[in-house]
Design goal:
- Helix content is 12%, strand content 54%.
- With 279 residues, it is mainly beta.
- The strands form two sheets. Strands 1, 2, 3, 4, 5, 6, 7, 8, 9, 12, 13, 14 and 15 form a 13-stranded antiparallel beta sheet that branches. A two-stranded antiparallel ribbon has the order 10-11.
- A hairpin with a 3-residue loop joins strand 3 and strand 4.
- The two termini are 39 Å apart.
């Protein structure tokens, strides 16, 4: 009964956000060229995501409990003279664990742009120096991710990158009331956007899949490697409903974890309803 109450209350509260989002997108476009800025950035885009799913696993609980959750995501990407930047912030409203904030930021410095030389080889069109940071509010986790990016030149993709980084823990651990501090590790992440058309309808499959290697926590316990994937299937709803392509999308996100958050044998598979507004 409590689960039904949570779903009903949350759906009523958050439905208003979706309506406001649709109203904003329906407003007339500005005189600036879409997706571009007259200032520092050569190109930029910002998105707001509204997601809902159930059966999210609560890691490190004795009964491997599950819960429903709404997730609001603010996501931004831009390109400038010497590279590009990407960040997202998730605001999670979960049935049992409550409200939490999690974010990631990555700055990529293109060696091709900086040197003015062609650094491509084979299918790789560019190599970048990557600097990233991950932050979780309730767990008080900070991770620093310096590394390299390989940008692939496959014309079907809007972009396709392979990021290889260190995974350096900067957390204070349990002494500061957070999750246990950990030894350092490494990450490999593949991120992409693949647009396509069926007739006159526009779709895309985009997202990322990451592998983070095992490490040890401050108590000397093993923290398993994990694989996290978050591919999205999007339909350009704004093109059909509003005659404005590239602004309003609907679809699903399939989130899967193997060894969620490093807890061995805790796997998760959640299909989430997805609405995306692009500004």
């Amino acid at each position: 009964m409590r689960q039904i109450s949570f779903r009903f209350k949350a759906m009523v509260q958050h439905a208003s956000v979706a309506l406001i989002l649709a109203n904003l997108i329906a407003q007339p476009a500005t005189s600036q060229e879409e997706g571009k800025s007259p200032s520092f950035f050569q190109w930029q885009t910002t998105e707001f995501h509204l997601q809902y799913g159930n059966n999210f696993k609560i890691a490190f609980t004795p009964d491997n409990a599950q819960q429903d959750a709404f997730i609001y995501t603010l996501q931004h990407a831009d390109v400038w003279k010497y590279g590009d930047n990407f960040f997202f912030v998730d605001f999670t409203d979960a049935e049992d664990t409550g409200f939490d904030i999690y974010g990631e930021f990555y700055a990529n410095f293109s060696l091709g742009k900086i040197t003015g030389s062609d650094v491509s080889f084979g299918p790789v069109k560019d190599v970048g120096v990557l600097a990233g940071v991950n932050y979780a509010k309730e767990a008080k986790v900070f991770k620093f991710l310096p590394g390299v990016r390989l940008s692939w030149g496959l014309h079907q993709f809007g972009f396709l990158n392979t990021d290889i980084t260190a995974y350096i823990d900067g957390s204070s651990g349990t002494d500061d009331g957070g999750a246990p501090a950990e030894t350092d590790s490494f990450m490999v992440d593949v991120n992409w956007a693949l647009p396509f058309n069926i007739g006159n309808q526009d779709f895309s499959i985009e997202g990322h899949i990451e592998y983070i290697d095992g490490r040890r926590n401050e108590f000397g316990e093993d923290v398993s490697w994990h694989v996290l994937g978050q591919p999205q299937f999007r339909y350009d709803l704004g093109k059909s409903l509003l005659g404005k392509p590239g602004h309003l999308f609907a679809g699903i996100e399939y989130q899967f974890w193997i060894n969620k958050l490093g807890e061995r044998n805790t796997d998760e598979h959640v299909v989430q309803a997805l609405i995306v507004g692009r500004f």
